[in-house]
Specification:
The chain has 263 residues and is an alpha+beta fold. Among the domains are: 1-53, Uridine Diphospho-n-acetylenolpyruvylglucosamine Reductase, domain 2; 170-262, Enolase-like, domain 1 (2-Layer Sandwich). The chain is built from 11 helices and 14 strands.
């Protein structure tokens, strides 16, 4: 049994104050990752700080040349947003392919990024587009945000408030799903725009990563043909009951070529 206190603040400052008062507390957004971890005994926070009643954390708006999406925006909201569909269709498609309708209705952008599951889709979008993660204290470039297995640059108690995704002329995401969970066995996000050419891979290793060899080839020639035959090093990739590292390396190439063609 999990024993914890439950708090429902109505402002970002109040949520952070609660977190400072309780060292073992955890923020809860949609709860799709945290509650599962608690049921399995992998997490045992002393307090849950619910963000559902904090206003202003779920908006979606154009901000200059970026699309700013609030941390509490659900996957379903991102997938169905007219702004996202118009300006970043690849992100809407990614959000619409996460898990199942029940999870998409509750799961949030900020919660997914903060959890940084090595097979989650949103980290690939953030890294693959060169997004910026905003917290109540600072802004963090995606290249600096993801540090490893379930590890991010967030400081203790730091709260994600929004994410800015640059509006790009070319972007696409494809994933090979693990059938039961619909997590990415391998997922590849490709993009090209003012931030350069980027290829981000999820599901293959201990965390989201950039495929620099593919990026270099695509920077010279944006075509599936340009990256055909480029070998992906399987040495840093995962082998588990679902797939070998070699198979995941093969999938990265296949999905990258298909994503480039789709973009």
């Amino acid at each position: 049994m999990n024993n914890f206190a439950f708090h429902s603040p109505t402002a970002v400052a109040a949520a952070q104050a609660l977190r400072q008062q309780h060292d073992e507390a955890a923020y809860i957004a949609g709860g799709q990752s945290l509650l599962g971890a608690m049921k399995l005994g992998l997490a045992a926070p002393s307090d849950l700080i619910d963000l559902a009643r904090v206003p202003g954390l779920d908006g979606i708006a154009i901000e200059g040349q970026s699309l700013r999406i609030g941390a509490m925006a659900t996957h379903a909201q991102v997938a169905s947003s007219a702004l996202v569909l118009k300006h970043l269709a690849a992100l809407a498609s990614l959000a619409g392919g996460i898990a199942d309708p029940a999870v998409r209705t509750r799961g949030t952008l900020g919660g997914s990024l903060a959890n940084n599951d090595p097979a989650a889709c949103y980290p690939a979008a953030a890294l693959g587009m060169g997004a910026t993660v905003h917290t109540a204290q600072r802004s963090i470039a995606a290249d600096d945000f993801f540090l490893g297995l379930y590890e991010t640059a967030l400081r203790p108690g730091e709260l994600i408030t929004a994410v800015s995704f640059p509006i790009l002329p070319r972007a696409a995401y494809l994933k090979f799903k693990q059938p039961a969970s619909r997590f990415a066995l391998v997922g590849v996000f490709v993009s090209q725009g003012p931030q350069g050419t980027r290829v981000a891979v999820t599901g293959a290793g201990p965390g989201v990563l950039r495929a620099k060899a593919l990026e270099a080839a695509l920077a010279k020639d944006w075509s599936a043909r340009a990256i055909e035959g480029i070998a992906i090093d399987a040495g840093q990739l995962n082998t588990d009951l679902h797939a070998s590292a070699a198979y995941r390396a093969h999938l990265i190439g296949v999905l990258a070529r298909r994503a480039v063609a789709a973009a």
